[in-house]
Amino acid sequence: xxxxxxxxxxxxxxxxxxxxxxxxxxxxxxxxxxxxxxxxxxxxxxxxxxxxxxxxxxxxxxxxxxxxxxxxxxxxxxxxxxxxxxxxxxxxxxxxxxxxxxxxxxxxxxxxxxxxxxxxxxxxxxxxxxxxxxxxxxxxxxxxxxxxxxxxxxxxxxxxxxxxxxxxxxxxxxxxxxxxxxxxxxxxxxxxxxxxxxxxxxxxxxxxxxxxxxxxxxxxxxxxxxxxxxxxxxxxxxxxxxxxxxxxxxxxxxxxxxxxxxxxxxxxxxxxxxxxxxxxxxxxxxxxxxxxxxxxxxxxxxxxxxxxxxxxxxxxxxxxxxxxxxxxxxxxxxxxxxxxxxxxxxxxxxxxxxxxxxxxxxxxxxxx
Length: 368
Prior knowledge:
Order of helices and strands: HEHEHHEHHEHEHEHEHEHHEEEHEEE
Distance between the termini: 32 Å
Radius of gyration: 21 Å
Helix content: 40-55%
Strand order of the largest sheet: 1-2-3-4-5-6-7-8
CATH class of the largest domain: Alpha Beta
Structural class: alpha/beta
CATH architecture of the largest domain: Alpha-Beta Barrel
Largest sheet: 8 strands, parallel, barrel
């Protein structure tokens, strides 16, 4: 399943914020209802519009989690799910969208900070969330994560002082996780009154994306949270649907429908930029200026232009004239862009630029 190199969580969420598009991160418990279906669910939420997945490594004493995720973790553990098996799932799906791991300090510390970071990075995870590891005790983990290119995600809460928000924001990567309400994870009938105040305060103190999690339970609540935040993390409402499903197929179907509703609600409150997210003056995209490739085969590379922040295709053919299979390559670029970013949201421009030994073209964002 893993056809593409993983993008970082920071990259995707920063790009969304620049475009005025609220980010959607979906939590799934690894091994629920089984490992094969976990991989199917990641693929499903990616296709339904999630920007990233937070994949939980089940733990016997998940102190941040409420009854739903506790039950999910226990079911996964009873089924024999191990951290290594969750790494295997990450390895299978990490090319679809950024995958962050969520687990507890006991599991990470038992494996060893450096070894866990290395295993996570080797599997293709781009971030790790450890909710019971406060900043004051996290230095060894932060250094280990940094060494392996893992983005550690840190939390702030309604009770956090401005000083605490500044400290955690300085060390977090990917996004700053704003806990919407005090207490454990779980569905709520209404979004907490503390969400808006916390996100407004946090966004005034950091330039990193601020996402709200804990208590975001419905599409309407997600949209309400995104009015002041850069996006949301939704977990218990998704996991409950998996727990209640009669079987894997029903779990996939119900999760796909729910995540699609979340994405639609967030898109309703999106505030798109007034212009396209590319530099119309960009005339040269040298290979050295391209971010890591997310598609490669024997005919072309497809990556993202560092100057323009849009997908770009580079033909492997060298020299002049433009390649004979130009139309096929442009179609391929369009398919890859739509598969990664959404059908109908990208088009391939008609202008092909030539650099010393490659032809290339851009896929551009459709503003509607």
